[in-house]
Amino acid sequence: MITLYGVAISNYYNKIKWAMMEKEIAFLEEFVAPGQTDAVLKRSPLGKIPFIKTADGYLSESQAILEYLEDSYPEHPLYPSDAFERAKTREFIQHLELNVELIARRIYSQAIFGGTVSSETIDEVKVKLEAGLKGLARLIKLEPYALGSEFSAADIVAWPHLQLVSFASQKIYGTDLVSEHIPGIDAYIKLIESRPYAQQVGNDRNAALTAFFSKQ
Fold first, then answer.
1. Would you say 176 and 166 are in contact if contact means Cβ atoms under 8 Å apart?
2. What are phi and psi of 53, to 5 degrees?
3. Which of 14, 12, 3 is nearest to 204 (CA)?
4. Which residues contact 149 (CB under 8 A, 6 or more apart)?
5. Is residue 187 packed enough to be buried (19+ CB in 10 Å), middle (13-18) or exposed (0-12)?
6. pLDDT per position in the chain (216 positions), as tens?
7. 50 lies in which domain range?
8. Rounded CA gap, 152 and 157, in Å?
9. Residue at 77 is within a domain
């Protein structure tokens, strides 16, 4: 059985957790914070979460994990069977994670955790984030799912990331940059949140956030 390591406040952790639930893969969860201890670094080379334990060993990096799950558990597929459409799904995920989520991550410390980010960083992030979201708007279809009529890995990735980017942009810029640049995204989020497993992941995330902030 797979063991998933990490924390439920992480959007990347929730990406993998939700994927396993939708694919009906049995798994265990074990709380592990990111860090530089030997115990973590032996299983995740940069101490990042999430990572998983399989029968063959440990695997880190959420996208590598997602594609491992798809290859190893072909039932309930999350990727299209057509090679080009599979590539378009990967294109969407890579664009979202590198050009949107990774950019927005630079303001999370202030937007979510009460830290402080320089005004220069805030301004720079806005320019790059808006460019990334405009690019994402050219890829996303919302018909009704991210890439068409079928639920896919694109939705597994879009939902946890875009929720967080939306929240962070509202806190820092006073406006939801995701909704501003991707018309129809609010209805899409509501559609995704009607899925039972998405609701469960969201509830677990909210409980983890409450527990986290209660200790601050």
1. yes
2. -110, 125
3. 14
4. 143
5. exposed
6. 999 999 999 999 999 999 999 999 999 999 999 999 999 999 999 999 999 999 999 999 999 999 999 999 999 999 999 999 999 999 999 999 999 999 999 999 999 999 999 999 999 999 999 999 999 999 999 999 999 999 999 999 999 999 999 999 999 999 999 999 999 999 999 999 999 999 999 999 999 999 888 876
7. 2-72
8. 9
9. no
Phi-psi region of 146 (alpha: psi -120 to 50; beta: other; left: phi over 0): alpha
Q: Can you say whether residue 76 is alpha, beta or left, with left for phi > 0 and alpha for psi between -120 and 50 degrees?
A: left
Looking at the structure, do residues 97 and 137 belong to the same domain, yes or no? yes
* Type of residue found at 128: K
Q: What does the block give as tokens for 190?
A: 């509501």
CATH number, residue 50: 3.40.30.10
